[in-house]
Amino acid sequence: xxxxxxxxxxxxxxRHTGVMVTTVLWFRRDLRLRDHPALLAAAGAGDRxxxxxxxxxxxxxPAGAARAAFLLRSLRALDTDLRxxxxxxxxxxxxxxxxxxxVVAETGATAVHVSEDFGPYxxxxxxxxxxxxxxxxxxxxxxxxxxxxxxxxxxxxxxxxVFTPFYRAWLRHGWRAPADSDPARVxxxxxxDADTDPLPDDPSASADLxxxxxxxHAAMAAWSEFRDHLGRYPEERDRPAIEGTSRLSPYLKxxxxxxxxxxxxxxxxxxxxxxxxxxxxxxxxxxxxxxxSARRYFRPEFARLPYVSGRLLEERLDxxxxxxxxxxxVDAGMRQLAAEGWMHGRVRMVVASFLVKDLKVDWxxxxxxxxxMLVDGDLPSNQHNWQWVAGSGMDAAPYxxxxxxxxxxxxxxxxxxxxxxxxxxxxxxxxxxxxxxWKAPGGPPGGYPSPIVDHAVERAAALADxxxxxxxxx
Length: 474
Known about the structure:
Elements: E1 4-5, E2 22-27, H1 37-44, E3 48-55, H2 57-60, H3 65-83, E4 90-93, H4 96-107, E5 111-114, H5 120-133, E6 138-140, H6 163-173, H7 192-195, H8 216-227, H9 233-236, H10 249-254, H11 259-263, H12 271-289, H13 310-321, H14 328-340, H15 345-358, H16 363-373, H17 379-390, H18 405-412, H19 417-422, H20 455-473
């Protein structure tokens, strides 16, 4: 059975006679109660609403400790919020195409409501669930994006491959106002006592991770605090030593806040932050139209560049992952990632460029590691940002852009505060000299390693490799 968009007609399913008719609201990447179009649609159907989450091992298995922990904490926060309205979050573990038909059979539900998923796995999963429901409609309303993939296209109806024209069209298209989904007006079903599976233990307890507070209220508090400083965002966003970014990406990932809620508060002069939300929509649209770009080079010729392999690959990956490359800004970023499951956006670009162009490692190794480690690991944004840095994706930076980790450190961490926070071996060095510790008398202090490679040499080699590739493409 196809997924039914909200408002479309579906054949009436047979009614279960053992319980009062319910509507199932299947939570996924929308772990909130406000500005929730699918909740509004479910409540508007006139039936009682049963809140459900399915623990799907296909999604839990690849998640690292940070992402899994934040998801579990977000589910507990959602359950707490639901309790204030007289219900609890029902949890079932298993394959969604098996769980949802069973829940419908047990409750006599007349429909299952969801926020539409446009990712490769999510879209295929929803098709399987819709078929398995066999007569009970799977109703999709809204999405995790301000503008859903497929809505913004060129004048000829094709998807955009470059961000700037996409952004102009995205602004012209616009987005809806936040949905008025008041949970106090919903007739909730409390079904959780005997029919729920326990949530797994929090994996962050053994990983010593410092994660943000989870839940919708925490998301709105973070937004309120950042909004007061939004005017300084363009000047502060690239400074990793200060809190110049919103830190909202984990909340957007799990849907504790909808981007439309944020856009409703963004003023006409706050274009820098609005563009960041548009980038998120752009990458989602790219993955929707080109699903193989999550795992393959969008420009396949770049796969022919001479990347390292074997023991050298493992040695370089180990040094990079462990923050032991000898380049302080790179190492600070990788150590922040290990400690917080998060890394400053500017530093993400630097460490990615260093892995691909200085260490000559295929971008997919870095993308996989980021997805495992990041609390905000989001497939379209992560994969396509890596392809952007590698020069192999849509709207790609020219391959000739090679980030210099020393110059980037001096420019964006001029006093070295960010580096000294995460690389304690270098705290004795003063000011900007922390970015070139090999120049200190006696070499790098405190057992800090010498540079794993010479950036100038590797940059020249990367550009020569690109020129050779470009010649063969003519």
